[in-house]
Amino acid sequence: MKNYQITLLLLLLSSNIRSQNLTGKVLDESGGVLIGASIYWLDHHLGTTTDADGYYHLPVPSEGAERLVASFVGYRSDTIDYNGQPWVQFQLSATELLDEVVVKDRREGAFISSTDLIKTEVITSLELKKAACCDLAGCFETQLSVDPQVTNVVTNSKELRIVGLSGVYNQVLVDGLPMIQGLTYTYGITSIPGTLVDNIFVAKGTNSVLQGYESISGQINVITKDPDPKAPLFLNAYINSFGEKQLNADAAFKVGNWKNLLAVHTVQPAGRRDRDQDDFLDVPLLRRYLVSNKLKYGKEGEWGWSSEIVLRFLNEERTGGQTGFDATSDRGSDTIYGQHVRLNQPEIRSKTSYRFDDNHGFSLFLSGFHQQQDAWFGTVSYKAGQSNLYGNFQYEWNYTERSSFKTGVSYRHLNLREELAFSANPLDRTYAGEYQRREYIPGVFAENSLELFDSKLSWLAGIRADRHNQFGWMVTPRTLLKFSLDERTVIRANMGTGWRTVNLFSENINLLASSRDIVFAEALDPEQASNFGINLTRKIERPNVTGYWSADFYHTNFQNQIFPDYDSDGTKAIIRNYRGTSISNSFQLETGMRFFKTTDFKLGYTLLDVYRRNDDSKKVLPFNSRHKMMAVLGYRPLSDQFQIDVNAHWYGKQRLPSTQSNPDAFRRPEFSDPFSHVNVQFTYNFGAMEMYGGCENIFDFRQERPILSWENPFGRYFDTSFVWGPTRGREFYLGVRYRLIKE
Fold it and tell me: What is the DSSP letter of 20?
């Protein structure tokens, strides 16, 4: 490992090879980036498109070129005379519709970035309109790489899985900052309303070292809406057949160089419903209030200062359990079972940048939050408070047309206190007490990106070193390669390591919801893993047909992993370090096509092989479908009057935790049943207003009575962790959106 790290460091610092390339950025009139804008040489068959950050990278023809064109649908094209400069920035102005000619085109709702070194799937706000997308967990209905999974069926907490691994192993960023950590992991992804999401960037495997040492299995970067004074008001209202209601409102305005977006969001609870008659609510009662304000100054990428500050406050209450449970009087009762969670979370995040010129600049990222949580899970009291601080200072030097060096320092501070107690303890559970974690983690990092062989090969190498106050220095090397076989075919590879510390209770909240005793067999060390991935992507460009196909493979090998042992004893969860063989292999095939600019079709297949080896025997880890398929179909006529979207998912069988040591009445099968899940939505456009309605799980597949020993929730065998499929059944919903546009 030491030789590998030294080699990467030497390669990182030795890169003076230049390439004949032009780079730049395409902006709109207000300074916002234009994703997917076309850049091409007027006199040559050579062009490209801007990436998710508005940047483009275009080879300069060897025989010379004089005129460069930038174009984007709905904007006036711009043509300039090229004089050999390494950087060209365009700022396009919106066109006015002419009575004589109207030219229309379509932006893609989701696509694979053609410029990023790592395979990055971009999900735009257009794609999010194809489903209800009430929160971040619901934003992946048309994607195969990210799999939302329920972690506690009683309160409906969720995680986002990548390559078959728990959501703790992928890094979820909000506007590039790590806001989902510790306590926020349990309910954090469901607290981000879908209407506030602008773009989502999904990358599998190890990523850049700039954002930290996590992202073992992947990274999800959620970019929230920017203030748009030309759209000063947005409203959304939603209700489903369970009676749950959501309201969203955004207001944007501009004062001088400052732009502001104020957003409010609320969820009001569903009715009490028990369709499978197990005396437990099918849908938890959720009440949420959220206020968010984003303030932006200047234009990012231009010389001088730019800044972004976000303030957010979240108040949430969740109630689940037996249908007669009353949270005002029954918290902690040992005669009627219920779960009740109250949390408050203020937070702040900011990004400040200063660019000296086209080649030099720095950025300062800061964030902090405090969450206070008060919860009951039956007779288990869980009170917790967490304070987080994060800082990251980066310096960037673009030393050639498309080669850059970034370096900086980071600091993380976490202070987490958890108190667990029992109002009654007839099962003699042993994990009550106070748990305290304090982490101080300063770090340094450096990363180099360059191009070789006339831009056919792109290479990024990075390394970081972080000093944990308890575990000492941890070194994280990573490297990414991208090679263009031709103008349409790209092969990518990434390799590196990652590590993380464990917060057991918030990351395994189902343990508190069951009657299992939690047994700590030893002190827990950081989890560590290495990851290797390779991806091949080819664009399809034919008359009336555009699209892509993609194939990728990712291999994760843990050097230490902490996964509760549910199998050794059905009444216990044993927690220990596992330093044996623990592997995740993920293979995915996917194709996406657009026909006649009106019909979108996507088809994908995933094979997962996630296992451990114990005494030379292979043990498949639970709750992973070895085989999974997805199909997505959408139709929108050129008139944009309406839109129909259908997505279908098929899941193969999953291994379940062993219950063989339980009495016969409390045993479950070793494997789940295969099942399918089909959703449909219809959207009608009235201009400034859209109405949408749909049905999730239209064939009404349900996992009947998912709770083990539901008849006796205070007995030894009560367990809520056997959820492998939908439990809510068929769900209808209706919504309306209104957007005010200023001319």
Answer: -
